[in-house]
């Protein structure tokens, strides 16, 4: 009986190994979005305008870090690129509904989002900073002064700055807007004490409004984030391809060089941006 059981155990083990090898050597999943992109000849990218990640120039054309990244990604795939501007608060539902293939929009990796979408390895790293109204918050001594029921903080709906505002300043009122321009306008108008967003957007806003706004916390980041592409769950081939694309372009320095152009004090592109 022991011999029979041993033979059965060996047979099961062989079957498992054989199945594993067969799975390993199987062709790419025909259901993968990568196959769809190649057949279609077009990469559809979900994004939302957000300086300097993605924005419109004075002729109405898209420009920015995300635009450069997605354009090169499509070129490397040998396909065209189509940008699908989407409200940030609805961008994950739109991805799941297959309105586009991938989110390339400066989306920070969070556990909550990861329950709904898959993330590639990071392709960018940023931090949240805060711009404040000089009249309303100019006398504040430190960040604890913002944690008060009389304080209002604005942010972009569905974005990580809103979560950060609630965590850091639970006593304050958090007001959400559909885009950053509206959130910062509230501060400029004196309707909100401060607005949190990914750097360098707050810095750019203060630079444009030096008489009425300043950088809270001496401009130091309130947090740090890792940004990645967002993909529908269950697509291992797509996750592998896009992550390896990021790896290759990180190793050869292209992503860092491109990121530095848009984020590291470059001013050549600023005059090209349409007024919000």
UniProtKB/TrEMBL annotation:
- The positions making up the signal sequence are 1-30
CDD domains reported for this sequence: PBP2_Dsm1740
Q: A single Pfam family, by name?
A: SBP_bac_3
Q: Listed GO cellular component terms? A: cell envelope
| Solute-binding protein family 3/N-terminal domain location | 42-266
Q: Which UniProt keywords apply?
A: Signal
Localization of this protein: Cell envelope
- Protein family: Belongs to the bacterial solute-binding protein 3 family.
* Descriptive protein name: Amino acid ABC transporter substrate-binding protein, PAAT family
Source species taxonomy: Bacteria, Pseudomonadati, Pseudomonadota, Alphaproteobacteria, Rhodobacterales
């Amino acid at each position: 009986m022991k011999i029979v059981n041993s033979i059965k155990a060996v047979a099961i083990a062989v079957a498992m190994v054989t199945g594993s090898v067969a799975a390993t050597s199987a062709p790419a999943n025909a259901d993968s979005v990568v196959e769809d992109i190649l057949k279609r000849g077009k990469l559809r990218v979900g994004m939302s305008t957000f300086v300097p990640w993605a924005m419109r120039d004075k002729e109405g054309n898209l420009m920015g870090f995300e635009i450069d990244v997605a354009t090169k990604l499509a070129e490397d795939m040998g396909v065209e690129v189509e940008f699908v501007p989407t409200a940030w608060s609805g961008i994950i539902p739109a991805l799941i509904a297959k309105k586009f293939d991938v989110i390339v929009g400066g989306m920070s990796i969070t556990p909550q989002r990861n329950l709904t979408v898959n993330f590639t390895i990071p392709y960018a790293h940023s931090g949240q900073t805060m711009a404040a109204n000089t009249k309303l918050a100019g006398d504040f001594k430190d960040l604890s002064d913002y944690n008060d029921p009389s304080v209002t903080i604005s942010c972009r709906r569905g974005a990580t700055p809103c979560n950060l505002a609630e965590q850091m300043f639970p006593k304050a009122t958090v007001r959400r807007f559909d885009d950053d321009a509206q959130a910062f306008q509230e501060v400029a108008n004196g309707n909100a004490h401060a607005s949190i967003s990914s750097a360098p957007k707050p810095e750019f806003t203060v630079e444009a409004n030096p008489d009425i706004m300043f950088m809270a916390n001496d401009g130091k980041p309130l947090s740090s984030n890792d940004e990645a592409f967002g993909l529908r769950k269950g697509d291992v081939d797509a996750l592998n391809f896009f992550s390896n694309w990021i790896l290759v372009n990180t190793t050869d320095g292209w992503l860092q060089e491109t990121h530095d152009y848009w984020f590291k004090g470059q001013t050549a592109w600023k005059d090209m941006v349409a007024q919000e």
